[in-house]
């Protein structure tokens, strides 16, 4: 997912191991945000923005089409948490998502001005496309609700 606009919009997303990159041009007061689940598209299927390398490329291109200059863009990066205990996973999806964001932004010459990445808590991120401001709220695990499975009419396993 990605969204960018020259007018003011408040964009929000909820992140666990996913990462969001917010890009902003202070001269045009224009910005956008993406949200991706996996770091790299492997060349199979559609190159959708659920992959970091595609999401960042599309966001940059969209902002350039809106009149931004790449040299004026700055980034803020969020997410990449390990919200599920996978102690046997030595290199989590969240960590790979963070690394991809940092590398892609460096390759594009876009500095990261702020970031809140890693950890074990999910977060809600709100980005203002006109002001470039970001509000981050951590999601506390006690707030999570486990819904019971419906009884009866469950699909049969074959």
UniProtKB/TrEMBL annotation:
<dbReference type="InterPro" id="IPR011324">
    <property type="entry name" value="Cytotoxic_necrot_fac-like_cat"/>
</dbReference>
<comment type="function">
    <text>Probably deamidates glutamine residues to glutamate on methyl-accepting chemotaxis receptors (MCPs), playing an important role in chemotaxis.</text>
</comment>
<dbReference type="InterPro" id="IPR038592">
    <property type="entry name" value="CheD-like_sf"/>
</dbReference>
<comment type="similarity">
    <text>Belongs to the CheD family.</text>
</comment>
<dbReference type="Pfam" id="PF03975">
    <property type="entry name" value="CheD"/>
</dbReference>
<protein>
    <recommendedName>
        <fullName>Probable chemoreceptor glutamine deamidase CheD</fullName>
        <ecNumber>3.5.1.44</ecNumber>
    </recommendedName>
</protein>
<keyword id="KW-0378">Hydrolase</keyword>
<keyword id="KW-0145">Chemotaxis</keyword>
<dbReference type="InterPro" id="IPR005659">
    <property type="entry name" value="Chemorcpt_Glu_NH3ase_CheD"/>
</dbReference>
């Amino acid at each position: 997912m990605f969204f960018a606009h020259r007018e003011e919009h408040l964009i929000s997303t909820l992140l666990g191991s996913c990462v969001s990159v917010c890009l902003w041009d202070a001269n045009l007061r224009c910005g956008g945000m993406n949200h991706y689940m996996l770091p790299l598209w492997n060349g199979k299927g559609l190159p959708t923005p659920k992959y970091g390398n595609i999401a960042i490329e599309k966001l940059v291109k969209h902002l350039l089409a809106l009149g931004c200059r790449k040299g004026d863009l700055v980034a803020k990066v969020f997410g990449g948490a390990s919200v599920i205990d996978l102690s046997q996973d030595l290199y989590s999806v969240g960590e790979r998502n963070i690394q991809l964001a940092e590398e892609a932004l460096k390759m594009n010459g876009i500095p990261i001005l702020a970031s809140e990445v890693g950890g074990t808590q999910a977060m809600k991120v709100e980005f203002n496309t006109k002001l470039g401001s970001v509000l981050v709220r951590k999601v506390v695990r006690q707030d999570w609700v486990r819904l019971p499975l419906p009884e009866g009419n469950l699909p049969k396993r074959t």
